[in-house]
Amino acid sequence: MRNAESPDTETINAVMMRHGEAQVLAGADAxxxxxxxxxxxxxxxxxxxxxxxxxxxxxxxxxxxxxRETATIVSEVLGLPLLPESAELVxxxxxxxxxxxxxxxxQPVIWVFHMPVIGRLIYDLTGCEVFPKTASVFGLKLFLNxxxxxxxxxxxxx
Length: 158
Fold this sequence. Notes:
This protein has helices at 36-52, 65-78, 95-105, 117-126, and strands at 11-18, 59-61, 110-113, 137-143, 153-157. The chain is an alpha/beta fold. It has a 5-stranded mixed β-sheet, sandwiched between helices. The longest helix has 17 residues, at 36-52.
């Protein structure tokens, strides 16, 4: 993990969130909605995130129902647009591909997705092992000219 940055290093802040608690039983995993407790915890997390005032252009999520519902709550609380869903953010997503995409796009958006991919992505980027509970939020500092693993910083967690 990087400890110091030069003054000319271009960075971007990334916000990653795991969806809220979802119902256990549903016809398909992708169709599991948030529980009322899940909705409440997402709303609490979104208000805490608002106090951090992340510079974001919108909220991007997996197409799974629980992630989409989480993203909708976050976008409403923060007054940000809900961006089109991304199939790359599903639980089985490729963390290396996501890391490359995130660094190439360099767009400050809030990503809402699932375990295990969120944990793998944060590890790939920062070298920090995290085990996100539902409605957890992570703030990362990404160094855009660093494409190698573990060169970015995990700055905070809610």
